[in-house]
């Protein structure tokens, strides 16, 4: 069984853009313009009360590449914010890659595994022109990392708390 742990945000990098894609089958897919040339790392987060999310991370930089709702989590209010400090626009979070481990080869290092899995209290909400995917109901957001129409909420201890995306209010 998967244990409860969350992606930790270490820093942020400059990002060209981030967009929300949505259709009848995939309600929430955020893509950051930060992809490198190699296959991404995957973090599958299953909701403790339903839902499933796939997080893709660049294996070289740790940049967050995509967040995709595979199965919609239960609806819940947005994550609490406490003295949020905005980060400069055009930034993408850098995720701690230690969860994937390291395999040393004679000429290079690579991740020991490509996919990790955990369980968290996922939530999903739509308020007018904003979609919010919450990763924890207990940690307030103190920092927002923004790029394009997407903001990522981070807790005081660096945990990924939520991904917000502006959308058509229809």
Detailed description of the structure:
With 170 residues, the protein is mainly β. The chain has one domain. The chain is 0% helix and 52% strand.
Task: Briefly say what this structure is.
The chain has no helices and 16 strands. With 170 residues, it is mainly β.
Question: Total strand count, please?
Answer: 16
Put simply, the count of helices is 0
Give the overall shape.
globular
Span from first to last CA? 39 Å
Give the biggest beta sheet.
6 strands, mixed
- What does the oligomeric state look like here? single chain
- The average pLDDT is 87
Domain count, please report it.
1
Task: Tell me the radius of gyration.
Answer: 15 Å
- Identify low-pLDDT runs: none
The amount of helix comes to under 10%
Structural class: mainly beta
Order of helices and strands: EEEEEEEEEEEEEEEE
Strand order of the largest sheet: 2-3-6-5-4-11
Strand content: over 45%
Give keywords.
170 residues; six-stranded mixed sheet; mainly beta; globular
List the helices and strands and how they pair.
Layout: E1 9-14, E2 18-21, E3 29-32, E4 41-47, E5 52-57, E6 64-71, E7 81-86, E8 91-95, E9 102-104, E10 109-111, E11 115-120, E12 123-127, E13 130-134, E14 141-147, E15 150-155, E16 160-166
Parallel strand pairs: 4-11, 7-14
Antiparallel strand pairs: 1-8, 2-3, 3-6, 4-5, 5-6, 9-10, 12-13, 13-16, 14-15, 15-16
């Amino acid at each position: 069984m998967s244990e409860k742990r969350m992606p930790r945000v270490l820093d942020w990098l400059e990002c060209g853009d981030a967009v929300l894609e949505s259709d009848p089958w995939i309600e929430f897919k955020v893509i950051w313009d930060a992809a490198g040339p190699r296959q991404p790392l995957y973090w599958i987060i299953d909701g403790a009360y339903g839902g499933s999310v796939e997080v893709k991370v660049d294996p070289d930089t740790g940049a967050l590449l995509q967040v995709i709702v595979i199965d919609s989590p239960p609806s819940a209010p947005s994550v609490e914010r406490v003295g949020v400090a905005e980060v400069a626009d055009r930034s993408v979070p850098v995720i701690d890659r230690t969860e994937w481990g390291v395999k040393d080869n004679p000429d290079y290092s690579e991740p020991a595994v490509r996919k990790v899995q955990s369980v968290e209290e996922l939530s999903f909400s739509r308020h007018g022109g904003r979609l919010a995917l919450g990763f924890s109901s207990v940690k307030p957001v103190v920092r927002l990392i923004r790029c394009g129409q997407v903001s990522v909420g981070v807790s005081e201890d660096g945990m990924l708390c939520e991904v917000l995306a502006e959308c058509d209010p229809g």
